[in-house]
Design goal:
Blueprint: H1 3-9, H2 37-44, H3 59-72, E1 76-80, H4 83-95, E2 101-105, H5 110-120, E3 126-130, H6 135-145, E4 149-153, H7 165-175, E5 178-182, E6 200-204, E7 218-222, H8 224-237, H9 243-253, H10 256-275, E8 280-284, H11 294-300, E9 309-314, H12 319-327, E10 344-346, H13 358-364, E11 370-374, H14 380-391
Parallel strand pairs: 2-3, 2-4, 4-5, 5-6
Antiparallel strand pairs: 1-7, 6-7, 8-9, 9-11, 10-11
Bound molecules: pyridoxal-5'-phosphate (PLP).
Pyridoxal-5'-phosphate is lined by residues 82-84, 87, 109, 153, 157, 182, 184-185, 204, 206, 216, 218, 352.
């Protein structure tokens, strides 16, 4: 080969050799070839697993997909560029061969509401919102609407309501609708929606799955009936996770079990402490024995693992008081995310539920005095100490 050609070919494309790297190296290649064209043909035809083109597959995201499929007890997964692209894929796959109608839990992440109203609505996919914790009303909405898909969250954002997913799955089955569950807050370590009858599960991998505030990603997992459609849409439209984000998410997930245990235990302590604070009106936390959905929570969740998320209402507070409280926080980070090693505070009215009108937020019970906390793995005393000093008059 001439030097110009060597520059392109020498030193690269070596077989890994007789060794196995302990973690998957980052594969930045945009495409892959095989020694036999027959094999490439089989891989491109999806008769044999393997990477061929980065929009279809890469070894980093394939490893992550295998892991999440196993954790959720699904048939297959696709790692996505964000949690919202996983939600989008789930909704498209849900209504693909069904009526273009969706029944959505009224308490849900604001961007999911916006997607349904502002993007899918104008495309002809109609949405009806209904309270997933009022089973009779929800069933009635499904009967009247005859939707192709139903979407809900395991733990709702930001009020921590928990719908009876097993019962909703029966309602969905009777109606012939796909049940899509956003399992971001709960994680498959707490609840596995597919085992409770859901068809499609979506995650924001930006949160506890990667866990260190350095990834934007998502994963969609499904049963066998929906997987081919999901994979085909993902391959065609390309909202897939990059190899680097796949690498970071895999790395993060290795400590997810330990992190979740610690976060859940810390969250129980923080929620109990907040409940006794004179400036706090009400604490929303699934581990609270007096929670409105306690019976469902006891049935669906493992004991003492109620998630890392809680929200509380400030007594006689509003936007100004919440801003002041957040500005006084010294250790807790005031950022728009959740599920990381560090404790975070988020004000739903200006962040996760900003796209909703004040009236819509009021109807959902998201007051201007509501603050959401994602509890991290720091010492519980330090989290409580920071809240205590920030809440001091
Ligand atoms: C419950 C829930 N689902 C989905 C998303 C979207 O995830 P991403 O920001 O990774 O797109 C979020 C983001 O906060 C979320 O809280």
């Amino acid at each position: 080969m001439k030097r110009e050609s060597k520059l392109i070919h020498t030193g690269d494309r070596k077989k890994p050799g007789p060794f196995i790297p302990v973690t998957t190296p980052i594969y930045t290649a945009a495409s892959y070839f095989y020694e036999s064209m027959d094999q490439l043909d089989r891989v491109l035809g999806r008769e044999e697993p393997g990477p061929s083109y980065a929009r279809y597959d890469n070894p980093n995201t394939s490893g992550l997909e295998e892991l999440v499929t196993e954790l959720e007890g699904g048939y297959g997964s696709v790692a996505c560029s964000s949690g919202m692209s996983a939600v989008y894929l789930g909704l498209l796959a849900g209504v693909m061969d069904r009526p273009r109608r969706v029944v959505c839990a009224s308490a849900i992440y604001g961007a999911t509401t916006s997607m349904l109203m502002n993007i899918l609505g104008p495309l002809g996919i109609e949405t009806t919102f209904s309270d997933v914790c009022d089973l009779a009303a929800f069933e009635q909405a499904v009967k009247e609407t005859k939707p192709g898909a139903i979407i809900m969250e395991t733990i709702s954002n930001p009020l921590m309501r928990v719908g009876a997913m097993d019962k909703i799955a029966e309602i969905a089955k009777r109606a012939g609708a796909a049940l899509i569950v956003d399992n971001t807050f709960a994680t498959p370590l707490l609840v596995r929606p597919l085992e409770l009858g859901a068809n499609i599960v979506v995650h924001s991998a930006t949160k506890d799955r990667s866990g260190h505030g350095d990834v934007l990603g998502g994963v969609i997992v499904s049963d066998e009936a929906h997987f081919n459609t999901i994979k085909t849409i993902a391959r065609t439209m390309g909202p897939v996770m990059s190899p680097f984000e796949g690498y970071l998410t895999m790395r993060g997930m290795k400590t997810m079990g330990l992190r979740i245990e610690r976060q859940c235990s810390n969250a129980c302590k923080v929620a109990s402490w907040l409940a006794t604070h004179p400036r706090v009106d009400r604490v929303h936390f699934p581990g609270n024995p007096a929670h409105r959905d306690a019976a469902t929570i006891q049935r669906l969740f493992p004991k003492n693992l109620y998630g890392a998320m809680l929200a509380f209402e400030l007594k006689d507070g509003g936007r100004a008081e919440i801003f002041r409280l957040m500005e006084r926080m010294k250790m807790i980070v005031c950022v728009t995310s959740l599920g990381d090693v560090h404790t975070m505070a988020l004000y739903p009215a200006i962040a996760s539920h900003r796209d909703l009108s004040p009236k819509q937020r009021q109807r959902l019970g998201i007051g201007d005095n509501l603050l959401r906390i994602s509890v991290g793995i720091e010492a519980a005393e330090d989290i409580i100490g920071d809240l205590d000093q920030a809440l001091a008059d």
